[in-house]
Every structure is written in structure tokens, then in C-alpha cells.
Amino acid sequence: MTHADLQKAAAIHQEAFVRQQRSYEWLECNLNAAPRFLNFVAESDGDILGFITWTQKSGFRADAVLDLELLAVASHAQGKGVGRSLIEQSLPQVRTLLAEQGSTLKHIMVNTRADNFAQTLYKKTLGAEVEVTIPDLYSADEVIMIARYVDSKT
């Protein structure tokens, strides 16, 4: 993701996360916080179809724990494998960036609403499993999913 992508990505963010506010500023903060936040877009013919943000948790570590912070796909592109592609195509780039800082990927965390159908995507693409459910955290119950020892599995 670049600054040129922010306007379109913010529109997708607002559409996907309707309870959140100031989408442009939120994404701009994440973009400006690299390399802690690693941001990627899916694009086709100049159109931003979706974006993903990975966050390094608890400092820069030799054994990095990442949070799949955000994943959003434009409504017109949903159901076409864009979310899966964002995960599968950005993760090798993330691993390369981690290696450049002397890190390897240990775990990936994902938190999402307990009723979010994307849990299936996270399980299939990352091997993430629900570890805990937190009642009424944001707008509903939230689950924390973890893919453990990612680099040793893939």
C-alpha cells in the first residue's frame, strides 16, 4: 500500500467496518508506522479490490508474532478469492521483511467477531484456531484465533 492507495482503501475500510470512524486517518497511521505495520493492497486494472495489514506484536523480536490487523475486500470483489489472495501473496513478502530484520515468523493472531464467516478463511489459509472468546468486546463477542509455529508448518 502507498499513500496513493489510501483514498480507495479508506472507502473499502468504511464499507467493511461500518462502526469505525475516520477510516482514512486510521489507515494512514498504519501506513506511516512501517515496519511495525505492513500494508498491502489487491489491485486489478488500477482498481483497489482490498487490503491487508499485518502488525508486529510486542516489539521487534527474533521470533515474531504477527497480528492480521485488518483484512477488507470491496463488496463488488467479495467471493472471488481476493481475501485469500491477499493473505497468500502478502505473507511471503512479510516473511522476507521479517528475515531482513533478523526475525522469523512464530505465530499469527487474528481477532474477529465471533459471527464473522471469515474465520473459515483464517482456518484454511493460516491454520488458525479459536483460542478464546471475549464476550461483548466491541460490537459483539470477539474471538482470538492463533496459527501456531507458522514457519515450522509451511
From TrEMBL:
Ranges of residues in domain N-acetyltransferase: 1-150
EC no. given is: 2.3.-.-
Keyword Protein transport listed? The answer is: no
Q: Which Pfam families match?
A: Acetyltransf_1
Keyword Transferase tagged: yes
Keywords from the UniProt entry? Acyltransferase, Transferase
EC class of the enzyme, as a word: transferase
Q: Name one GO molecular function term.
A: acyltransferase activity
Can you name this protein?
GNAT family N-acetyltransferase
What organism is recorded for this protein?
A: Enterovibrio norvegicus
